[in-house]
Amino acid sequence: MDLMRLLDVLSDGEYHSGVEMGRLLGVSRTAIWKALGKLEAEGIVLDVVKGKGYRIDGGLDLLNSEDIAAYLASRSIFLDNLYLLQEVDSTNSFLMRDDVEAKGYSLCLAERQTAGRGRRGREWHSPYAKNLYMSISFSLPGGAEVLEGLSVVLGVAIANCLSSRGVPNVGLKWPNDIWVDGKKLAGILVELKGEAEFGWKVVAGLGINVRMSEHEGMQVDQPWTSIERLVGDASLERSLWASALTESLIETIDRYRIEGLQGLLADWSKFDILQGRQVELSVGGVLGLCHGIDSRGRLLVDVNGKMSAVNAGEVSVRPNESSD
């Protein structure tokens, strides 16, 4: 049977008996039991109470592609492709495949990733239908110079969207991690295909914690937070967040095409959490004082009186806690 139909029934967070679900879906109780077993095998936690039935505690806020397309159309934004997948290895990998065209903008969202990735090959934890796992692909003509600062620009797009929708104390940790009060809220992974002579296919992946529980986040190896913790349950419709984030990404990328990074430096400065702080470069453990970024998106670090420009691909940077 179609597991999505069963998930739709259970998404309200209420108890439903096997008999009731069988009647609603037009299948036998045996088929329901088998389907419930498949859901549990896929990592969906079911609460079972004898005499009451089955439920998903807290329900599910499933993504809706029609709602997302309608939101974007109301703002005169139209995608070449909109993919909504129940499960995928990673949304970035899906859009990087050769059979997915990249003429305009393509958007891929998934309820779960089986091999989600962060920067430097780190695993991105992806519980089913609790966070946002999304990637957008687009083309950029020109040489390597058009890629300078792109990661920074994408971070600005996400930070602006979150801040405008009520998330407090949004900060950007170079080049594009989203942090709030010392805890990670979202990360961005940029991948490329192409060459300078013919232009680039860019795929930008976003993972953002929306309503992940403490139990579901136990595997995360760094302090983290979520939109639910920061703004409460009333503002948690994931389709709306996916729509607003996509809108901000496309508007900011279009702005970048015209203005370059120079036109977005002021936006970066609003959210820069490393400005004026001592930071530690992962290569060699060198300490220095951060002075923002330059016009190419490189991190400026004063090391023993000498200013160095650090490329995103060379090192990772984290605040030196002993300096706080």
Automatic annotation (TrEMBL):
Q: List ligand-binding residues for biotin.
A: 90-92, 113, 117-119, 184
* Protein's UniProt name: Bifunctional ligase/repressor BirA
Q: Which family does it belong to?
A: Belongs to the biotin--protein ligase family.
User: Mind telling me which CDD domains this protein's record contains?
Assistant: BPL (cd16442), HTH_ARSR (cd00090)
Q: What is its EC number?
A: 6.3.4.15
Explain the purpose of this protein.
Answer: Acts both as a biotin--[acetyl-CoA-carboxylase] ligase and a biotin-operon repressor. In the presence of ATP, BirA activates biotin to form the BirA-biotinyl-5'-adenylate (BirA-bio-5'-AMP or holoBirA) complex. HoloBirA can either transfer the biotinyl moiety to the biotin carboxyl carrier protein (BCCP) subunit of acetyl-CoA carboxylase, or bind to the biotin operator site and inhibit transcription of the operon.
Top-level taxonomic group: Bacteria
Q: Which residues bind DNA?
A: 18-37
Q: Which UniProt keywords apply?
A: ATP-binding, Biotin, DNA-binding, Ligase, Nucleotide-binding, Repressor, Transcription, Transcription regulation
Enzyme class of the recorded protein, top EC level:
ligase
> Which Pfam families would you find in this protein's record?
BPL_C, BPL_LplA_LipB, HTH_11
Q: Where is the BPL/LPL catalytic domain?
A: 74-257
Recorded catalytic reaction(s): these are: biotin + L-lysyl-[protein] + ATP = N(6)-biotinyl-L-lysyl-[protein] + AMP + diphosphate + H(+)
Q: Does the keyword Iron apply?
A: no
Tell me which InterPro entries the record gives. aa-tRNA-synth_II/BPL/LPL (IPR045864), ArsR-like_HTH (IPR011991), Bifunct_BirA (IPR030855), Biotin_CoA_COase_ligase (IPR004408), BPL_C (IPR003142), BPL_LPL_catalytic (IPR004143), HTH_11 (IPR013196), Transcriptional_repressor_C (IPR008988)
Gene Ontology terms: biological process: regulation of DNA-templated transcription
Taxonomic lineage per UniProt? Answer: Bacteria, Pseudomonadati, Pseudomonadota, Gammaproteobacteria, Alteromonadales
Q: According to its record, what are the GO cellular component terms?
A: cytoplasm
Molecular function GO labels: ATP binding; biotin--[biotin carboxyl-carrier protein] ligase activity; DNA binding
